[in-house]
Design goal:
single chain; 362 residues; 45% helix
């Protein structure tokens, strides 16, 4: 007699009812049409001046574009916003990876918005030299600040730009200022000694450190520490408080090895905990003290003038480079020249001279 079960197993899944179609073909078509309808430069400018975050975001995307057809429109937007800019405090924040920059910026940004400030965070993420991609995860890290109506967070990829900032960070600052943001926080990629470009676009340069990552010998490095207006030892909480205090003393000694700043400001050191918000308000007070000094001795205005001149020269360099590589004759000649260099039939220097001679003759 067969003992085989005739009833199906309880684990068997019965065929269900197919869900109804919830996607509207007309809605899809409307979205496609709206995406193709790009706002004009005037519409973007008007939106930015009215505090429209969507217009600001689209304008930033426009100026970050490497498409040469967007260049004229981007320039028009920047020129339209420029008369309404230069009314914010620009603060550069840097430090090695793992120092807690994003956590610090969130705590600092929340403190500023509680004081009634409008805060824009321009976070620069490093781009892969292999895939050329970037995570752009700063909004994920700043969960509370991203929900604040008085805060705007814009992550950008560093691309091939050195110096810890993105290619169009300077222009993005102008747009954010025109949109009414009082404080601009620029978070660099955190690559260490090479982060110098951000210093040429901010009013106050803040260097974050952690205990155990350096000592007084850091003072002999003519790099990032020499430019810092304040050194903050982060993660001064729990069992790390004592170590942070010792690190503060060491960095304070290191600062004495540097020459006096043209601003007349003496760089300060302090400890804080972005996790517990301990010491965050003191950092803002330090920045206010700095601004009071540089406004009284007119260094603030002079520095802004020097920065404008610097970025004029940087823009010329960038435009010349773009123009060079987009010339049809150079594009055609570049491929064969590269192969000749790879095959060692010509030196890199001679090849470069051939390309430059061709460009200037053109």
């Amino acid at each position: 007699m067969s003992t085989k079960k005739t009833n199906p197993s309880a684990l068997n899944e019965k065929a269900g009812i197919s869900p109804p179609e919830i996607i509207s073909s007309s809605a899809i078509q409307q979205i496609k049409v709206s995406r193709k309808n790009q706002p004009s430069a005037k519409e973007l400018i008007d939106g930015i001046l009215n505090g429209n975050i969507t217009a600001l975001s689209r304008a930033i995307t426009l100026i970050e574009s490497t498409n040469i057809t967007h260049l004229e429109k981007a320039s028009e937007v920047i020129n339209g916003c420029l008369p309404h800019a230069n009314k914010s405090i620009r603060i550069g924040i840097t430090g090695v990876p793992g120092v807690g920059k994003s956590t610090f910026i969130e705590a600092f940004g929340k403190h500023l918005t509680s004081l009634g400030k409008k805060v824009a965070v321009l976070a620069v993420d490093p781009s892969s030299t292999i895939s050329h991609g970037s995570i752009l995860g700063d909004k994920t890290r700043m969960e509370e600040l991203v929900k604040d109506k008085n805060a705007f967070i814009r992550p950008s990829a560093s691309g091939e730009t050195l110096g810890g900032v993105a290619r169009k960070t300077r222009e993005t600052i102008t747009l954010c200022e025109a949109c009414g943001f009082d404080v601009i926080l620029i978070e660099t990629v955190g690559v260490g000694q090479s982060e110098t470009a951000v210093h040429s676009m901010v009013d106050f340069f803040l260097l974050l450190k952690i205990a155990g990552a350096g000592d007084e010998l850091q003072g002999i490095k003519r790099g990032i520490m020499e430019m810092a207006d304040a050194i903050i030892i982060n993660k001064a909480d729990g069992d790390n408080i004592k170590k942070a205090q010792l690190a503060k003393v060491e960095f304070n000694r290191a600062l004495h090895l540097f020459p006096a700043k043209k601003s007349g400001w003496i760089p300060t050191t302090a400890t804080c905990s972005a996790l517990t918000q301990e010491g965050i308000s003191a950092v803002w007070q330090t920045i206010l003290n700095y601004l009071e000094l540089v406004n009284s001795n007119h260094y603030f205005i002079e520095k802004r003038k020097e920065q404008n001149q610097f970025w004029m020269m940087e823009t010329i360099d960038e435009q010349l480079k773009n123009h060079f590589y987009n010339q049809p004759s150079i594009i055609q000649l570049l491929d064969s020249t590269k192969k000749a260099v790879q095959n060692n039939t010509i030196s890199p220097f001679a090849a470069a001279q051939i390309l430059l001679d061709s460009y200037f003759k053109k």
